[in-house]
Amino acid sequence: MARKQLGAAPTLATHSQPYGSVLTSWASKTAPSGTPVGTTDTQTLSSKTITPRVVSPTIATTYTINADVTDLYVVNGQTSAATFNAPTGTLVDGQHLMVRIKGDATPRALTWNAIFISSGVATLLATTAANKTHNVGLVYDAAAAKLVCLAVDAAGY
């Protein structure tokens, strides 16, 4: 029986990852302990902290919140009446949004786009109090296509 020559054996140089700074950097990483969080499975997370995405715009007369990058929208030192426009980005059902507004020495009127509604329990903040900070808690209701005000600190602190 004749043996057939199959060619040269593969060499290490043509079939391996060359050594470099990327491998050095990767080698110094510490693997997470426990079960990694997957993208398609259901897992219960405990002892984890989610850092809110805080956006602090420059003071203006109109504000447009980007829902894709904002959990807490902080307006610090409102100096005139202001309007909150409909958010940009993609709101998802149940998404929470907190708006914190600090007024200056004069009460300032606030207007909210029609996508923002009062819940019947909490009414959207209509006017800031002089030198006070107010929080407005909202949640998105996809069925109604509205950001519903669930909590408001109208008196301020």
Task: Give the tags.
single chain, 157 residues, mainly beta, six-stranded mixed beta sheet, three-stranded parallel beta sheet, 1 helix, 9 strands, 4% helix, 28% strand, elongated
Kindly describe this structure:
This protein has one helix at 21-27; strands at residues 54-55, 62-63, 72-78, 82-84, 96-103, 110-112, 116-118, 133-141, 146-152. The chain has 157 residues and is mainly beta. The chain has a domain at 54-152. The strands form two sheets. Strands 1-3-5-8-9-7 form a six-stranded mixed sheet, with no helix packed on it. Strands 2-4-6 form a three-stranded parallel sheet, with no helix packed on it. A hairpin with a 4-residue loop joins strand 8 and strand 9. The termini are far apart.
Secondary-structure blueprint of this entry?
Blueprint: H1 21-27, E1 54-55, E2 62-63, E3 72-78, E4 82-84, E5 96-103, E6 110-112, E7 116-118, E8 133-141, E9 146-152
Parallel strand pairs: 1-3, 2-4, 3-5, 4-6, 7-9
Antiparallel strand pairs: 5-8, 8-9
Summarize the structure.
The chain has 157 residues and is mainly beta.
State the end-to-end distance: 95 Å
Following the backbone from N to C, one meets helices and strands in this order, namely: HEEEEEEEEE
Taking the sheet with the most strands, its summary is: 6 strands, mixed
Widest sheet: strand ordering: 1-3-5-8-9-7
Helix amount = under 10%
The gross shape turns out to be elongated
Radius of gyration of CA atoms, rounded to a whole number: 27 Å
Give the averaged pLDDT, no decimals. Answer: 89
Tell how many strands the DSSP assignment holds. Answer: 9
Poorly predicted spans:
none
| Count of helical stretches | 1
Structural class: mainly beta
Give the DSSP E fraction (strand runs of 2 or more residues): 25-35%
